[in-house]
């Protein structure tokens, strides 16, 4: 009986240790809906003058967000508008572009543009 009790305790101990290592959580990052710039500065941001230039120079480049890559084609304004929230999230989290984050001023412009409706002004 003593052997069975010892084996049961060992099994229980291994189970508890295994369970404790299996329990983890990913930190939930709440979306930041605050404007990074003053409202007056955000109001001056235009798609064609600001956002499109950022996207063209940092995202819509060869082997990245262009036609034929399997990624959203950011050479088309409609695709940029459709993915505006995702663009804001990925640039804000500094996970895009893969070569390194955009300058904070560009990230702020994208965030303002999205928070103000992400309109395309062609």
Describe the structure.
The protein is mainly α. It has a domain at 39-115. The protein is built from six helices and no strands. The longest helix has 21 residues, at 2-22. It is elongated, with a radius of gyration of 24 Å.
Question: How is the topology of this model organized?
Answer:
Blueprint: H1 2-22, H2 39-43, H3 47-58, H4 77-82, H5 84-92, H6 104-115
Defining key terms:
6 helices, mainly alpha, about 55% helix, about 120 residues
**Poorly predicted regions:** none
User: How many strands in all?
Assistant: 0
Approximately what portion of the residues adopt beta-strand conformation?
under 5%
The DSSP helix count reads: 6
Q: What is the terminal separation in angstroms? A: 83 Å
Mean pLDDT across the residues is: 85
* Sheet of most strands: none
Helix/strand order, N-terminal first: HHHHHH
**Helix/sheet category:** mainly alpha
Q: What is the overall shape?
A: elongated
Question: Radius of gyration from the CA trace?
Answer: 24 Å
- Bin the helical content: 40-55%
